[in-house]
Design goal:
The chain is mainly β. The protein folds into two domains: 107 residues, Jelly Rolls, CATH 2.60.120; 113 residues, Jelly Rolls, CATH 2.60.120. The protein is built from no helices and 20 strands. The strands form six sheets. A six-stranded antiparallel β-sheet has the order 3-4-5-11-7-9, with no helix packed on it. Strands 13-14-15-20-16-18 form a six-stranded antiparallel β-sheet, with no helix packed on it. The N terminus is likely disordered.
């Protein structure tokens, strides 16, 4: 077929109506399992995603989802239909309003579909993590009911604050990596000593478990063991030391109306 061209005044070449458009040629692509680009879906959700092709927030896409053993999604829906296949683990997917899927265990190779905007729940019920392949054609966003949330302490999801620190955090709301404020639980082992440090912004803390010592830059607090229920307010920029002096781990509720950071003495010179 002959492609007709029209040259406009600015020197652009435009295909006239009816002329075929050039398509990006397909190319072979290989992505080994140990090279998958996993990222966490949300700070408070222990689910990781690995995009295989496309961008599911914008349109058609194939995505892998990984959830830890015991994961429970809670009631939620999506803005697009999706198709799913279990790759690893044992999964349950059900619709409370209709009873669809209730009691059905989905093992590797199993398949289900979910229509858009319908409230449903998911769970990884195996003793090992679950991996699910998801395909969607339309933009895909997860939505949760606008209701209150309660969670017991043993349901909290913990992660390391940094690879080289024995500090575990459980994010409750907000995003500690961004401005806007956040609340979290911080857990440290017995004998923990933070060393002298500061934070750019103020923080407010309430001790939940263990015995804590908080020493400000003047030395105040060094001989004051704090029991559960004790409150700490640390001014931004002020050097201080935190210690867990009990025989059990210490858990502190922490709130900052800003993003989190740590400043060491050399950082403020």
């Amino acid at each position: 077929m002959t492609i007709k061209l029209k040259i406009v005044a600015l020197g652009l070449i435009v295909l006239l109506p009816g002329a075929p458009r050039a398509e990006t040629p397909m190319a072979n692509h290989y992505l080994p399992a140990d090279k998958l680009p996993w990222y966490q879906e949300a700070p408070s959700v222990p689910v990781k995603l690995a995009p295989l092709w496309g961008d599911r927030a914008k349109g058609e896409a194939g995505t892998l989802l990984n959830a830890p053993a015991g994961f429970k999604s809670g009631l939620h829906s999506h803005t697009a239909d999706y198709w799913a296949v279990v790759v690893e683990g044992t999964w349950e997917h059900w619709v409370p309003s209709t009873g669809e899927g209730k009691g059905i265990r989905l093992t590797p190779g199993a398949h289900w579909t979910q229509i858009r905007t319908q409230w449903h729940e998911d769970a990884c019920v195996s003793s090992t993590p679950c991996t699910i392949f998801l395909f969607n054609k339309d933009p895909y966003i997860t939505e949760f009911p606008k209701t209150s949330l309660s969670r017991t302490f043993d349901q909290m999801t913990w992660k390391k604050q940094a690879p080289d620190l024995p500090i575990m955090i459980s994010e409750l709301w907000g995003d500690r990596a961004r401005d806007g404020g956040y609340g979290e639980l911080v857990q440290v082992p017995p004998g923990f000593d933070s060393r002298l440090h500061a934070h750019t912004a103020d923080f407010h803390g309430v001790l939940v478990k263990g015995t804590w010592v908080h020493v400000d830059e003047s030395g105040k607090g060094s001989n004051v063991p704090l029991k559960p229920g004790s409150y700490i307010r640390q001014a931004g920029g002020g050097m201080h030391v935190d210690r867990c002096v009990s025989k059990e781990p210490c858990v502190l509720f922490l709130f900052q109306d800003s993003k989190a950071d740590v400043l060491w003495p050399n950082d403020t010179k």
